[in-house]
Design brief:
Blueprint (H helix, E strand, L loop, with lengths): L8 H13 L9 H7 L4 H16 L3 E4 L9 H4 L7 H13 L4 H8 L11 E3 L17 H18 L7 H7 L9 H10 L30 E6 L12 H11 L2 E5 L3 H4 L1 E6 L13 E9 L4 E5 L11 E5 L7 E8 L10 E5 L2 E5 L1
Parallel strand pairs: 5-8
Antiparallel strand pairs: 1-5, 2-6, 3-9, 4-6, 4-9, 6-7, 7-8, 10-11
Length: 356
């Protein structure tokens, strides 16, 4: 035990706990989190000690640490609202009666490169369909979830990455810094033929702003959107098979999850907290599902809490944990039209030269 006594603070408590109960230890922290934890406030250190006790007792396969959002409230980093029953029924009717565009039908015939729903694993990042991790500044996770899916589809359709403005979506869609729903962004874009602004023009200000109106000069339009669950019920947790199939058809998927402080402090591994409630699920946070691994029994999700959370902004979460996969929805970006510059006639030595 002499070498254990040399461990600092919270690590000493964890080591003694493991020796006392003979339990397996949480996975090792990366050097980044070891360094971050040295600067953690005392209340966070105490919370981490208690959470590691829970992880050890339940023999879970992940660890927690002082992440980039550990000192924030859940309200600051989540933001998904519940949809009333009338709204859920409206969407179900919409999904059942709507017709896909010819472009959407063509897309579903060609699966994402390397994506086979029956495969044991898939990671859309390795195929170039995932834009960099973002960092939300208020309770607008719903906008980041929707744009995570849209930007992935845009890359697939148009071959280039974009950084669309979540702030613009928040300003102009039904939702704000206190909460909203990801599918509302999709519906607004498709049904109203609306396009998104660039992030550089309207960066996340962390506050509610009025919609600027007008039409941005971008080609960030969408043709179709849909609910992953075949019933069209946006409040349900879609099945594992349905989500895998949707990812291969459409790309990264917007979805929801129920998060707590344990989720907030996740620092790596395969997360599991409580069994999903398929009969009556609840959720408070929206993310983007970008892959899976059957050996882990888990989804790979892209979050919007910056790269100092999780595994550089990503998480592996068990298929049946924390209601992951609720409100799963897809969107298809529109093929961008090229802007053609006017042609000018320039005379050089009495010879006309066509110049762009």
């Amino acid at each position: 035990m002499k070498h254990i006594k040399k461990l600092p603070g919270i690590l000493l408590g964890l080591a003694l706990l493991g020796c006392q109960f003979g339990m397996a230890q949480p996975i090792q922290l990366s050097e980044k989190y070891k360094q971050r934890e040295l600067k953690a406030p005392e209340n966070v250190r105490t919370l981490l000690l208690n959470q590691r006790k829970q992880i050890t007792e339940q023999k879970l396969q992940f660890n927690v640490s002082f992440t980039g959002v550990s000192s924030k409230t859940l309200a600051q980093i989540t933001g998904e609202k519940e949809a009333p029953e009338q709204e859920v029924n409206r969407i179900k009717q919409y999904i059942v009666t709507r017709k896909l565009t010819p472009a959407a039908i063509d897309i579903t015939k060609i699966r994402l490169l390397g994506c086979i729903a029956s495969s044991k694993k898939y990671d859309a990042r390795t195929q170039g369909y995932v834009t960099p991790v973002r960092d939300q500044r208020c309770g607008n996770c719903w906008a980041y979830s929707a744009l995570g899916a849209y930007e992935g589809s845009y890359k697939r359709i148009n071959g280039s990455f974009i950084d669309a403005s979540e702030q613009y979506a928040e300003n102009c869609v039904d939702g704000d810094c206190s909460g909203g729903l990801a599918y509302k962004v999709m519906e607004w874009m498709v049904d109203n033929n609306k396009n998104l602004e660039k992030e550089t023009v309207a960066p996340d200000a962390g506050v509610n702003q009025p919609c600027a109106g007008g039409t941005p000069t971008t080609n960030y339009y969408a043709t179709d959107w849909g609910v992953v669950d075949p019933s069209g019920d946006i409040s349900k947790i879609a099945s594992v098979a349905s989500i895998k199939d949707a990812i291969c058809k459409y790309g990264p998927i917007a979805a929801s999850v129920q998060v707590t402080s344990l989720f907030q402090n996740y620092a790596g591994g395969v997360f599991y907290e409580f069994a999903s409630n398929y009969g009556s699920p609840s959720s408070n946070h929206a993310i983007t599902i970008v892959g899976w691994d059957d050996d882990k029994g888990a989804w790979l999700i892209k979050n919007s809490w910056g790269t100092d959370w999780g595994e550089d902004g990503y998480m592996w979460i068990k298929y049946n944990s924390n209601n992951i996969g609720r409100r799963a929805a897809w969107i298809i970006a529109k093929k961008a039209t090229l802007t053609v510059k006017p042609i000018k006639d320039v005379k050089i030595q009495n010879k006309p030269v066509i110049q762009q």
